[in-house]
């Protein structure tokens, strides 16, 4: 046991450094925006098509979760994870998925592994009601070790006219409704793998990333935050207007056992866990207090800063 607890930065992922780098390039990115591009910092990029709505586009990967899949010899779920992660990123903008593409890169193509990944992506695309249009498959010997691979996804959806979330409608006193996660989803795996270094990896690490498309298209909500890298503190503020914050009731939900195991094995602090993992909440909806559905998991409220 190490004398000091593990952290995400010690495992090789420094979120603070990433945020600083992003702010440095932000002016370069925004310099490309025209009159139809949406604002910087949303979960998905948006582009207005006057009279049609807004295109919502997002790209992501499942990070080093692929290393767990490789170690355990189970790959289909990685394809599912990838699609669902991207679906959630555009669904918080009330976008309906239109199509999906993937990028698969490896040192040497293993047809069986590749088939599993495509099976997972195709199944998730069918669930979301969109086609897997295609993508790119690259063999890159010398860049990837034999047996290693990476998988990235690209999604485009459409938000109807007038349906984009309006943060100006969010008020202090609005309720925060949490939608449970299945576990780590697709974030925090560099730290999780460090914690289990030299030990057998638990299969719970491969629990699938949930799609929240059904809930986001049937429930009434003002704004929503997909809880990915950075946890609730790194994502919920993106669903709130300037001048408003939030209060959480940390006792309102049960944290899945896998997170407790990670924290205990790695002696990870509460703050580090909260800023690295979703801790059992994969999506947060901001809901008017009069519109909270029966049985909803209320985890807090919007508050004045």
Secondary-structure blueprint of this entry?
Layout: H1 15-30, E1 45-49, E2 53-61, H2 65-72, H3 76-91, E3 96-106, H4 111-128, E4 132-139, E5 149-159, E6 175-180, H5 189-195, H6 213-218, E7 223-226, H7 231-235, E8 244-248, H8 257-266, H9 270-276, E9 281-287, E10 298-304
Parallel strand pairs: 3-4
Antiparallel strand pairs: 1-2, 2-5, 3-5, 6-9, 6-10, 7-9, 8-10
Helix pairs in contact: 3-4
Taken from the alpha-carbon principal axes, the silhouette is globular
Number of strands: 10
Gyration radius, rounded: 19 Å
Query: Low-confidence parts lasting 5 or more residues at pLDDT below 50?
Result: none
Could you say what the CATH architecture of the largest domain is? Answer: Alpha-Beta Complex
Number of domains: 2
Tell me the strand percentage band.
Answer: 15-25%
Q: Per CATH, what is the topology of the largest domain?
A: Phosphoribosyl-aminoimidazole Synthetase, Chain A, domain 2
One letter per element, helices H and strands E, the order comes to HEEHHEHEEEHHEHEHHEE
Structural class: alpha+beta
Q: In percent, how helical is the residue content? A: 25-40%
CATH class of the largest domain: Alpha Beta
Q: Summarize model confidence as the mean pLDDT.
A: 94
- Cα distance spanning the termini: 40 Å
Count the DSSP helices. 9
CATH superfamily of the largest domain: PurM-like C-terminal domain
Q: What is the spatial order of strands in the main beta sheet?
A: 1-2-5-3-4
Query: Largest sheet at a glance?
Result: 5 strands, mixed
């Amino acid at each position: 046991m190490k004398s000091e607890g593990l952290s995400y930065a010690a495992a090789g992922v420094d979120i603070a450094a990433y945020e600083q780098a992003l702010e440095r390039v932000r002016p370069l990115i925004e310099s490309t925006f025209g009159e139809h591009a949406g604002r910087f910092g949303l979960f998905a990029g948006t582009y207005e098509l006057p009279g049609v709505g807004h295109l919502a586009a997002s790209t992501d990967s499942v990070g080093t979760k692929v290393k767990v899949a490789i170690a355990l010899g189970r790959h289909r779920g990685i394809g599912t994870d990838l699609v669902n992660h991207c679906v959630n990123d555009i669904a918080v903008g009330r976008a309906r998925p239109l199509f999906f593409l993937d990028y698969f890169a490896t040192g040497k193509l293993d047809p069986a592994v590749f088939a599993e990944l495509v099976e997972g992506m195709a199944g998730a695309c069918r669930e979301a009601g969109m086609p897997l249009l295609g993508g790119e498959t690259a063999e890159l010997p010398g860049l990837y070790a034999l047996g290693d691979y990476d998988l990235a996804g690209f999604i485009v959806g459409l938000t109807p006219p007038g349906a984009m979330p309006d943060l100006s409608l969010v008020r202090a006193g609005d309720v925060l409704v949490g939608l449970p996660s299945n576990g780590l989803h697709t974030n925090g795996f560099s730290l999780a793998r460090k914690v289990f270094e030299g030990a057998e990896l638990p299969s719970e690490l491969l629990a699938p990333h949930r799609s929240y498309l059904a809930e986001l298209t049937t429930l009434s909500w003002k704004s929503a935050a997909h809880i990915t890298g950075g946890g609730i503190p790194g994502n919920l503020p993106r669903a709130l207007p300037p001048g408003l914050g939030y209060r959480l009731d940390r006792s309102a939900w049960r944290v899945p056992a896998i997170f407790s195991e990670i924290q205990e094995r790695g002696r990870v602090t509460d703050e580090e866990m909260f800023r690295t993992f979703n801790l059992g909440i994969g999506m947060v909806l901001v809901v008017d207090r009069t519109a909270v559905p029966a049985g909803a998991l209320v985890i807090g409220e919007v508050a004045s800063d």
